[in-house]
Amino acid sequence: MARFLWKLLELFSWLVITLFFWLIPIFFDKEPSLWLLVIIGFVVLFVIDFIFSRTVFRDKEKKCAWCDGTKIKYKLLSGQEGPKLWNSSNKDGSKDKRVKNNNYKASYYSEFECKECSATTKFNHEISSNPSHLANVKQRTLVSKGNNDRKGTDWRIPFGG
Ligand SMILES: [Zn+2]
């Protein structure tokens, strides 16, 4: 859903940029050049991307369990998929091999290192057909302590949430 909104926003940004481009001759009484449009376009998209990824689309629970900081970095190769949930499964949950293109969903486990206190936090990500450390967080657990006082907490999504 967020991805769909994002595409809509991108489209809207381009409309605004194009409109701005058309308005330049009216306000400045000269013909704008194409490279100007491209540069303005990229700057505007970059700024909007930056603002939105830090506000609207940011997962608020994806933060350091030690210092509560949000500057955390995915530890390469720390990720691992949870149990596979097949679209068509046998009674015991295993893959139904008779069904072609039988896709699955899975949760995802990953570890992030804090840039501020160097603590390591483990996340359990929501079940997705595209499991990765980018999926929303449903559980946060401290793995190793940071180098200052603890302000953060372990957390898990409330029941029914
Ligand atoms: Zn931290």
TL;DR?
With 161 residues, this protein is α+β, with helices and mostly antiparallel strands. It contains 2 helices and 7 strands.
Topology:
Layout: H1 2-28, H2 34-54, E1 72-74, E2 80-81, E3 85-86, E4 104-114, E5 120-128, E6 137-144, E7 155-156
Antiparallel strand pairs: 1-4, 2-4, 3-4, 4-5, 5-6, 6-7
Zinc ion binds next to loops.
Q: What are the bound molecules?
A: zinc ion
Unreliable stretches covering 5 or more consecutive residues:
none
Relative helix content: 25-40%
Mean pLDDT: 87
- What is the H/E string? HHEEEEEEE
Strand content: 15-25%
Shape: flat
- The count of strands amounts to 7
Largest sheet descriptor: 7 strands, antiparallel
Model description:
The protein is an alpha+beta fold and 161 residues long. Helix content is 30%, strand content 23%. The protein folds into two domains: 2-54, no CATH class; 72-156, no CATH class. α1 (2-28) runs antiparallel to α2. The radius of gyration is 22 Å and the shape is flat. The model has no long low-confidence stretch (mean pLDDT 87). Bound molecules: zinc ion. The site of zinc ion (ZN) has 9 residues, from loops.
